[in-house]
Amino acid sequence: MLKSDEFQRWIEASHAMFEIFEGRYDVYPLAVRWAKEWLNLKKFNVSKEDTEIVNHLIDSFNYDAYRNYKDKIEKNGNKWANIVKRADQQFKTLKNLKSGNWGNIGFGVAPFLFSWNFQRFKEYVKKKRNFDLQNYAEKLGKILEYRIKLLKEFSHKRLTHEEVAEEKVKKIFDDINSELRKIGIGNNEPVGTIKLLHVFSPYYFPLIDNKIASVIGLSSLTSDSYVEWMKVVRRWLQRYYDLNENLEQKFHFSILKLMDQGLYIMSSVKLRARVENLGLKVN
After folding, report:
1. Residue 1 above 90 pLDDT?
2. pLDDT score of 281 more than 90
3. Around Cβ 16, how many Cβ atoms within 10 Å?
4. How far is CA 58 from the centre of its chain?
5. Which domain of life is it from (predicted)?
6. Spatial distance between the Cα atoms of 109 and 88, rounded to a whole number of angstroms
7. CA torsion through residues 152, 226, 190, 170, sign
8. In terms of Cα–Cα distance, which of 180, 182, 152, 154 is closest to 167?
């Protein structure tokens, strides 16, 4: 267990590294801001600067960082190139996110969801020849609009301040997962579900992916196991209660997001891309 000063240094160091390697074109802050606006006004405003950030992300997205050389399809150069081409074509359709007011929040969270859950969207492109990201965003917006009341209720909660609302959490988790399964490729979508819940309630729903889940002893990500994860995170962060809000104010992120940055830096699949960014290579 980390001492308080060690926890603070871990958060600060992880955040600094995250900003160096991921922060430049990260659309997470936009997704959180737009989600908050939409919950309050049922619309969100996209500025010209926002569109530039989204477009930079799309133009600079490193698909090769997610290539799995153990996969029989992806290890084939031509097949991988085709996957990248089709994925990039779909991602570029989000350049249609022009400045102004938008009512469908699906388009506000789609750039974040696609870029931070590309391991999953990669499978959509591989297995669903007619996958259409615009259509996906449109349907996603309707799914979220139907659940706006409950999403808004969660957005006012802080995990470190109150007990986990187990039954309500399980309900919305299973509900959104079921809907994502319908508009995806027919598989459960726990990681996508969790990312969406977090964007709308960044102080209540902690992020987690399959790799972290396996390390902490969760065999799979279900509504039940996610509730257990929330309890674990709550207990852990309460040990550093006096530090949490100061760190949030310093970095302008929830402690749940800052914690996730630390876990991400420790376990990311993008090592190859990061080493290349450092300029370390054999000529």
Report:
1. no
2. no
3. 14
4. 16
5. Bacteria
6. 17
7. negative
8. 154
Contact 109, 128 (CB under 8 A): no
Torsion sign, CA atoms 198, 142, 177, 171? positive
Give the number of other CB atoms < 10 A from CB of residue 8: 16
Q: What single string gives the DSSP state of each residue in 27-56? A: -HHHHHHHHHHHHHHS-EEE-HHHHHHHHH
Enter the tokens of residue 46: 């996209």
What residue spans define the domains of the chain?
Answer: 4-269
Task: Please give the Cα distance from 241 to 107 (Å, whole number).
Answer: 35
- The two tokens of residue 89 are 């074509």
On the question of pLDDT at 277 being above 70, the answer is no
Predicted model pTM: 0.93
**What's the rounded Cα separation, in Å, for the pair 110 and 105?**
8
Dihedral angle of Cα 58, 209, 31, 172, to the nearest 10 degrees? 140
> pLDDT-derived band of residue 280, with 50, 70 and 90 as boundaries?
low
Give per-residue pLDDT as tens, 63-114: 998 999 999 999 999 999 999 999 999 999 999 899 999 999 999 999 999 9
Helix (H, G, I), strand (E, B) or coil at 101: strand
Angle, CA 52 vertex, CA 46 and CA 58 arms, to 5°: 110
Distances (CA, A) of 158 to 35, 155, 233, 256: 17, 8, 12, 10
Question: Please, which pLDDT band fits residue 141 given cuts at 50, 70 and 90?
Answer: very high
- From the list 125, 141, 149, the residue with the least C-alpha distance to 179 is 141
Residue 18 has pLDDT above 60, yes or no: yes
Residue type, 92: K
Length of the chain counted residue by residue = 283
Question: Identity (one letter) of the amino acid at 1?
Answer: M
- For 142, the token pair is 């309707």
CA-closest candidate to residue 260, choices 22, 50, 55: 22
